[in-house]
Structures are given as structure tokens and as C-alpha cells.
Amino acid sequence: HSHEESILECLYSQNYNTTISQVTFTPTNSSYDSILQFSIKNSRFNTSASPKPVLIITPDSIPQIQTTIICSKKQKFQIRIRSGGHDYEGLSYTSPDQNSSFLILDLIRFRNISIDLAQQTAWIQPAVTTGELYYRIAEKSSTLAFPSGICPTVGLGGQISGGGWGTLLRKYGLAADNVLDTRVIDAEGRILDRASMGEDLFWAIRGGGGNTFGIVIAWKIKLVPVPASVTACTVTRTLEQNATEIVHRWQYVVDKLSNDVFFMVVLNRVVNPIQANATTIQASFNSLYLGSIEGLIPMMEAKFPDLGLRRENCVEMSWAKSILYFAGFPLNSPLESLLDRTISATGSAKFKGKSDYVKEPIPISGLEGIWEKLKEVGVQTGGLILASYGGKMSEIAESSIPFPHRAGNIYQVEEVAFWVEDGVEAADGYLNWLRGLYEYMTPYVSKNPREAYANYRDLDFGRNGDGGGGGGGKGDYRRARSWGSRYYKNNFDRLVRVKTAVDPANFFRNEQSIPPLSSWR
Ligand code: FDA
């Protein structure tokens, strides 16, 4: 018996569940490749060299998930849980450790949304995307929303497991801050809800990382009020149009504005609009205001006159439409675009992202150094995305949920590189550039620890051994601290305690999951 045959035998022999064979795919199955690739959202891990799962299971019932857990444990398979497939390092569908046999538990069929308008809550299954959720809320109410991410194809299974920030974060915090209840299947195959799992586990799963504490099969979320019409604006400025001074000034106002204003600034290299053969650096200021153009313009004239915001930079629209606006869709795109899981901000590109938190404004000279870095890469192949903090984010305690990046942050930074070229050499070029930019940012961002966003997973911080490690030893704990303290700060130890209590054998694991610590048992 091969390892693969043994697990198939186990899966198919569970006679209370006769249908699992219909949702199990091995590499010899003609649908295997298309199912594997459908939710790969980073082409960097979609090459012939990328380690592939021995099996993909796409369960459509809870007993099939429980069977998968039981048989994977028995046959010592790692499972990779996949909802939307946007993991930055591809850990929901590949394992950089070539030696481990893993299977994908792809939750793509768990996509129900049930909205309770009277209570202003919803139950959602994990493979629901943010776009699908926003669309279904908008169908029922023009004045309700949910404070999750901007890119409409991201799965809520993974996103809420790491936090989930979007244009409503200054008003309502993160997606994970707005979870009321959940259904999780633990390593023993038990179905738990908030009452039966207890507050420690309920705390941990709201941001402590996916594929670690159990399989989330549903979230109960709190919907939040928004005006029927909101205002979205874009102002672009190049270096020749004073971008440096305006970005510099932006840092002094953005976290102190009314909670109804959110700002995102995208910095990258573009073709110079006034000199066709040359390039320049552009800052694109995208803002969302939970109110009318009339309300916004005088506020910006008073608080941030340097931006020079004018009516013609702004459009009023529904909140759901503003997601398409922020995600870069053309203005006349139908709202149904939110339902399309196949389009993606990343297209067929390969990418890597890194993240930072800024607590003191970066001086002009520091910004000028960033421009120099951006000039080292091609037009729109690398950039920084700044997202304003403050407001509600500063009111929530660092220990409220595992996500700790709260008061004291002016904005969050994502440094990112995109490329389409194949091959290791091209990849190394972009990765080295990105690491150089990150190195350059060191004096200007958070220190001790240098904080990072768990949902922008970055294996440069280190990884568990053996595709997940975790014999429960001190070495595993110490190694995991190197990324755990960045993602979770002082919440890391509590996450280890919860992990030790609920999954001491470390069944749910990946290269950056929280390990158990046997001496804490
Ligand atoms: P995926 O299925 O890859 O899961 C991610 C991780 O969670 C994996 O470790 C996986 O095993 C685990 N997991 C998935 N489902 C689980 C479940 N049901 N139970 C337990 N564990 C589970 N973030 C943000 O906050 N705001 C934003 O605007 C964006 N925008 C954005 C755009 C693009 C193009 C990308 C690629 C990513 C983002 N993100 C983001 C980051 C995103 O929130 C992060 O990658 C999420 O983990 C992705 O969740 P998925 O379910 O899509 O991924």
C-alpha cells in the first residue's frame, strides 16, 4: 500500500459517508489541475516545481470534513485548509517543504450567506468572498456593510483568521473585531461554537492565524451601518506636482481626521504624464468619506489643504460600489463584478508583500530615499500602499483579539513587488529589490518588535521545521517567536497557550502556525 492508497482506503471506508469519493481528487483525476489552480492567487506558487498535494478534497458536508481529519491523522498527512486561496506564501495549497505529504481540504463548496436584517447579523461560510458578502448585504440593505478587506475575491475563512482591514477600519475596526460567534471543527473532529469552545479559543481564532486552531466552517458577524451614499475620491500627484510635500503632510493629519474618513495612498513608479519618454513617482491618494461631497470638501480644505481636493476628484456612490472603486474597477462596472471569484488584483502575476507600521512621520529625506528605491524597478512592478489608522483602531485594546497593531500607529504600509516573468532569476531580482526596500524602511517604522500583519504572511521571518514542526519543544517555540512577536506582539504567548490546550499534538500546522509548547500542558 502506498501512503496515498492508505488514506483513500480510510476515507472511503467510513460508511456513514458514502459520497466522499465524489469530492476527492488525486493527480490522476482529470479535474485535479483545474481544482488545484482555481484558487491559486499567487502565480509564484503555480509552477511545475511547486510541491503539490497528494489529494484534494472539496467537501460539501460536515461529516466529510470530520472524516478527512480522522483519516489524515491516522495516516499522518498534513492538511492545508483553503478558503479563498490568497495566502501570500501559498500555504493553503502548497508546502515549501518538499518532504511532507499533504492534502488540501478545499472549502470552496462552503459558500452560504444568511443575513438577518432585523438583528443586523449574518452567518457566513468560509469560502464566501468579501465581494460576495458585500453584494448580498447590498441586495438587502443600502445602509449596512461589513468592515472587511478591499479585494473582492479574498476568502473570509482566511481573512478573518488574520484580522481583515478595509476602508471601514477607522470607523469600525477589523473584520475580526466584528465576529459574534463561530463554528469550528477541532482536531478531534468535534463541532464547537462560541459557548462550547470557551472564550480562549474564541479569542484565538479571531486573528491568531488560519490552519492552526481548527477548521472554521462558519462565522457569525455583526453588520455595521453606513450611509446610503458615500464619497470616494482620488487625487494623483507626481514628484513634479509636489508629491513629496503632500505625502509628508498627509502623515500629520491622517490618523486624526474624523472616523468617517479613510485614506489609502499608493506610491509607485509611473510613466510621466507630462513627459512621455520619462518616468516619475506618483502618489495616488484614494479616500472614502461616509457622507456627501458637500460634507467632505470643507473638512479637507480645513484639515489638509495641501492635497487640493476638489469636487471633480470625487464621486458619490453606494458603499458596495466604493469597494469596486477602491479595488480599481472602472467606474461604470456592474455591482455583479463583486461576485466574480476569477478576477483578481494580482491577475496572473507573481507577487510578494511585506508589511510595516509607522508611528512617527517619515521625514522628507526618508521619503526621497523611497523614491530612489522605486526608481530601481519597472513601471508599476513595485510599490507601497499606505492605509490610515487611528479612529476606532486606537480605541480597541491590543489584547482584545490577537491582532495587536492599534493605538500609536499613524498608518500601515505594505511593500509589494509584482512580476510576470518566469524563472528563479527574475523572481530573485524582484525579491531582492523588495528586501532592499524593506531594509531601507527600517529606521522609519516600528521597532522591537518590527511589527507585521499576519495576513501579509512573510516567510522571510522564518518558518517551522518539517512543514510545521512542533514536537512541542522550546526550540519550536523560540523559532516561532521570531514571526509570532511581529504578528501578535504580547499576544503570542497566549496563542501558544491556547494552541497547547486545544491541539497539543499539532495536527493543524503549516510553516508559520503557532506551535504548542509541551511544558505548558
Ligand atoms: P487562503 O485560503 O489561502 O487561506 C489563508 C490562510 O488561512 C491559510 O493558512 C489557510 O490554511 C487558512 N485558512 C483558510 N480557510 C480557513 C478556515 N476555514 N479555517 C481555518 N483556517 C483557514 N487582507 C486584508 O486584511 N485586507 C485587504 O484588503 C486584503 N487584500 C488582499 C488582496 C489580495 C490580492 C491578496 C492576495 C490578499 C489580500 N489580503 C487582504 C490578505 C488576505 O486577507 C489574506 O491573504 C487571507 O489570509 C486570505 O484568505 P483566503 O481565504 O483567501 O486565503
From TrEMBL:
SUPFAM superfamilies: FAD-binding/transporter-associated domain-like. Its cofactor is FAD. It holds the Pfam family FAD_binding_4. Keywords: FAD, Flavoprotein, Glycoprotein, Signal. Belongs to the oxygen-dependent FAD-linked oxidoreductase family. This is FAD-binding PCMH-type domain-containing protein. Residues 49-226 form the FAD-binding PCMH-type domain. GO terms for molecular function: FAD binding; oxidoreductase activity. InterPro entries: BBE (IPR012951), FAD-bd_PCMH (IPR016166), FAD-bd_PCMH-like_sf (IPR036318), FAD-bd_PCMH_sub1 (IPR016167), FAD-bd_PCMH_sub2 (IPR016169), Oxid_FAD_bind_N (IPR006094). The keyword DNA-binding does not apply. It comes from Linum trigynum. Gene3D superfamilies: 3.30.465.10, 3.40.462.20, Uridine Diphospho-n-acetylenolpyruvylglucosamine Reductase, domain 2 (3.30.43.10).
